[in-house]
């Protein structure tokens, strides 16, 4: 997943709270970032929608990994 989109998601996480990381927010976040175009989002992120969803869920474990080991 592209770093710019991850940064965008993390900015929303900081501003709005943990709810921004729920799977149900992926589509609205993609639409917000890519000017209401899921097609542009998929093209920019270079994958299939299912792969983008998996990456969105997968990167989240790294947010808490360092905290859990501290």
Question: What is shown here, in short?
Answer:
By secondary structure, the protein is an all-alpha fold. It has helices at 3-16, 26-33, 38-45, 49-59, 61-69.
Structural class: mainly alpha
Q: Write down the overall geometry.
A: globular
Count up the helices: 5
Give the helices and strands as they follow along the chain: HHHHH
Characterise the protein shown here.
The protein is mainly alpha-helical and 70 residues long. 71% of the residues lie in helices and 0% in strands. It contains five helices and no strands. It has one domain (3-69). It is globular, with a radius of gyration of 12 Å.
Keyphrases for this structure?
70 residues, mainly alpha, 5 helices, 0% strand
Describe the SSE topology.
Blueprint: H1 3-16, H2 26-33, H3 38-45, H4 49-59, H5 61-69
């Amino acid at each position: 997943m592209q770093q710019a989109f991850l940064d965008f998601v993390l900015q929303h996480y900081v501003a709005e709270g943990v709810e921004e990381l729920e799977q149900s927010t992926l589509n609205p976040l993609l639409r917000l970032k890519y000017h209401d175009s899921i097609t542009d989002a998929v093209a920019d992120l270079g994958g299939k929608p299912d792969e983008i969803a998996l990456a969105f869920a997968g990167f989240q474990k790294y947010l808490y990994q360092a905290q859990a080991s501290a």
